[in-house]
Design a protein that fits this description.
447 residues, Immunoglobulin-like, extended, six-stranded antiparallel sheet
């Protein structure tokens, strides 16, 4: 028997089947999804038309440096050229040869004269040891600072003083235009500088004047001068630095200036007897007599001028002397005279020296200086002196080692590039000393 009752939910309606639900979803979303699919296919086609592959997702991207895949591609012939190792290596060998050759040549040239006989051109600062020390600086105010509108000109006749010697000081004030300004010296005081627990040295007052007397050559020229003679004052026994403090006034302002000298009250030796000359081993020697009171190492220097008054050489004696009479030889090396075409006769002048004192302050005891002309020799023939280089065990040893370096560098360059000639040596270019050759002369071959 069939029942006529219908399920609740509406008369005449049937339950929705799965197929009918899918059809409804497609009716609602089918059109938008179709449009999206068409657009995606169009985009892929457009990118393929441009030869561009579609972008991969981050998950699908291969890792850099994956096995079997080189990180850098091949560089074509249009890139940077590879460095020319051969040319670079040759430059290195050439530069090395130039360095060792320069070392050899400069040492040989510089040591062809002994240390005790050098051209004055190498020692211009020692040509005039007795010339006054001249300076000009802004006025140093007494309370500190300076006044650049006032320039103070100062002079002192020497810095080192032997026993019995004196030193002259002078000062003058000028403006920026060089016009002399009125100056008044209010006080001048000299005292020895002591250090640590040493007993303070005595003080000595110095008179300064502008009267044309003593150390002041011209009166009333605005330059005031004073003289310090330690041996004639309370500083006679002081050994060391003596500082002179001069206070002055210019235009109502007070200023101060300091002068320092080094004084030794003891005489380690004295000059005795006449000077003579002698030709020894192809060189010219000036022989001086020195009576030594304190034995030790003495360093003595003399200056030599040629016949035209031109500064020619600085001569130095450096040796240990015993007590009593000694001969001091100041030698003009023969090759130096030949190379410099010395105009004879030569004149020895301005001789000074000292006894070197180790572990002491001051480190020297000064000899009495011989100022000005000391001795003029005879007009020897220049051809009578030797033109041979100076020789010593030390010099030969150094030249041998430096020549080995040159020989080795030349061999390396010749072996690397035998088709190219070796560059000329520095000495040969200067036309002074022949360049060392491999296995010859001063450049022994390197095995």
């Amino acid at each position: 028997m069939r029942s006529d009752k219908r399920p609740p939910g509406g008369a005449g309606k049937r339950p929705a089947s799965p197929r009918s639900g899918l059809q409804g979803w497609l009716r609602r979303w089918g059109a938008p999804l179709g449009t999206a699919a068409v657009l995606a296919l169009a985009l892929i086609g457009w990118r393929l038309a441009r030869d561009e592959p579609p972008a991969l997702s981050a998950a699908a991207a291969p890792a850099p440096g994956a096995p079997g895949r080189p990180f850098f591609g091949k560089v074509d012939g249009g890139g940077l050229p590879a460095p020319d190792d051969r040319a670079r290596r040759r430059r290195e060998l050439v530069d090395h040869l130039a360095l060792v050759d320069h070392t050899y040549c400069s040492y040989r040239t510089g040591s062809q004269y002994p240390a005790g006989s050098r051209p004055m051109a190498e020692n211009a600062d020692q040509n005039a040891p007795n010339a006054p020390v001249l300076e000009m600086n802004p006025m140093r105010l007494d309370g500190g600072g300076s006044d650049t509108q006032v320039q103070l000109q100062t002079s002192q006749s020497r810095v080192y003083m032997a026993a019995g010697e004196a030193v002259a000081f002078s000062l003058r004030a000028v403006d920026a235009g060089g016009r002399v300004l009125p100056l008044v010296v209010t006080r001048a005081l000299a005292r020895g500088i002591s250090y640590g627990a040493a007993r303070p040295a005595p003080q000595v007052t110095l008179p300064f004047a502008d009267d044309g007397n003593g150390a002041d050559p011209v009166p009333n020229d605005g330059a005031f001068a004073g003289v310090l003679a330690p041996a004639q004052s309370g500083l006679a026994g002081f050994n060391g630095t003596i500082r002179t403090e001069v206070r002055y006034a210019v235009g109502g302002k007070s200023g101060v200036v300091l002068f320092d000298v080094i004084y030794t009250p003891e005489l380690p030796a004295v000059w005795s007897g006449p000077v003579r000359e002698t030709v020894e081993n192809g060189s010219l020697a000036f022989v001086l007599k020195l009576d030594v009171r304190m034995p030790g190492r003495y360093v003595i220097s003399g200056r030599v001028d040629d016949a035209q008054g031109k500064p020619f050489a600085l001569l130095t004696f450096n040796d240990i002397l015993g007590p009593g009479p000694n001969d001091i030889r100041l030698t003009v090396f023969g090759k130096l005279m030949r190379d410099q075409d010395a105009v004879l006769p030569l004149t020895l002048r301005d001789v000074d020296g000292y006894l070197l004192k180790e572990n002491a302050d001051p480190d020297r005891a000064l000899l009495p200086r011989l100022e000005g002309k000391v001795f003029t020799g005879r007009a020897h023939l220049l051809s009578g002196f030797s033109d041979a280089e100076w020789q010593s065990e030390e010099r030969s040893r150094y030249l041998t080692e430096f020549a080995k370096d040159v020989a080795l560098a030349r061999q390396e360059l010749s072996a690397f590039d035998p088709a190219q000639p070796l560059p000329p040596g520095e000495c040969a270019q200067k036309a002074q000393i022949p360049a060392p050759e491999i296995g010859k002369g001063g450049a022994p071959s390197v095995k």
